[in-house]
Amino acid sequence: MPRTGDGFRLDAHVAASGLTPIRGGARTFPRHVLTCPANSLKLSTMEEREAAELRSVEEVVDRLTAKYPGIDRHEIEKIVAEEHQAFEGRPVRDFVPVLVEKSAKQRVKALEQA
């Protein structure tokens, strides 16, 4: 039976799966998505936001390189850069690193299987 409190929904299967609940609903995301410090949510300048996004995208490269050691890091960097470029000019940037990781992971996985 789910417990709710303070905006969090906690399920035994969610806790066991390694997913972390997000405030305000039952949607869950992997823990690595939530690794930014709480004060980074209050970034005041566009430059700081862009720098945080670029750091997150660099972490995507690191995770994919570790997960797919058979694929050259340079190739993974190229794929991630192409996927990141696809979001250029989009007004909402909050989930860009997550979306980049998802699409890049699909491409790297396909490349590994080829």
Summarize the structure.
The chain has 114 residues and is mainly alpha-helical. 52% of the residues lie in helices and 11% in strands. The longest helix is centred in the middle third of the chain and has 22 residues, at 46-67.
Provide keyphrases for this structure.
single chain, 114 residues, mainly alpha, Helicase, Ruva Protein, domain 3, 2 domains, two-stranded antiparallel sheet, two-stranded antiparallel ribbon, 4 helices, 4 strands, 52% helix, disordered N terminus
Describe this structure as you would to a colleague:
This protein folds into 2 domains: 1-31, no CATH class; 36-113, Helicase, Ruva Protein, domain 3 (Orthogonal Bundle), CATH 1.10.8. 52% of the residues lie in helices and 11% in strands. It contains 4 helices and 4 strands; from the N terminus they run ββαββααα. It has helices at 12-17, 46-67, 73-85, 96-113; strands at 3-5, 8-10, 19-21, 28-30. The longest helix is centred in the middle third of the chain and has 22 residues, at 46-67. It is elongated. The protein starts with a strand and ends with a helix. Mean pLDDT is 76; it is low at 1-17 and 19-39.
Number of strands: 4
Largest sheet: 2 strands, antiparallel
On the 0 to 100 scale, the average pLDDT is: 76
Count of DSSP H/I helices: 4
Could you give the order of strands across the largest sheet?
1-2
CATH class of the largest domain: Mainly Alpha
Query: Helix amount, in percent?
Result: 40-55%
Instruction: Please report which band the strand proportion falls in: under 5%, 5-15%, 15-25%, 25-35%, 35-45% or over 45%.
Output: 5-15%
- How many domains is the backbone divided into? 2
H and E order:
EEHEEHHH
- Described by the principal axes of the CA atoms, the overall outline is elongated
Radius of gyration: 16 Å
